[in-house]
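Lab notes, practical 5.
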Amino acid sequence: MTTNGGGYSFLKRSIAVSNAVQAEAECDKFGMNLLITRTPEHVVSSYKVATNALILPGASPNYMFIMGIYPKLKGSTCTLKALASATPMCNWRAGDDGPFHVGNKVNIGEPNGDNDLTASMFYAFDAMGVVTGYNDIVSPGYTSATFMCDFGDKKM
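Output from the prediction step:
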């Protein structure tokens, strides 16, 4: 609660395998959204929560495997660009239409457009919480038995 001025609230969920639509519905039960990272600091804070064994129900970077970030249109791309709402011609959006930030890497050839509107990409991170890759696919998108919810209480 102190990173970047604090204000982040997370809930780690470990349930039956879920795609983004199912995870969104699960998070909604708690009045929350499927995790949408907003800033570089928020990405790192989210990763620290995901991988902290003292915050139950477990520790795994897979809590950030799917997020509430979707294509604006079927087939949207954002290849070789920073995956963030502020990136020109990056046709992806946060599920709540607020700002999002996943990473600044410009050497990732994804998302390349093989996606549907409700299909989440998968996300991979290094041990410091920096994104190392992501990939988009058609609906229902990637699935995960673990994911995180947040309130989106700090937009930037």
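Observations recorded by the TA: The chain has one domain: 11-150. The domain at 11-150 is CATH 3.10.100.10 (Mannose-Binding Protein A; Chain A).
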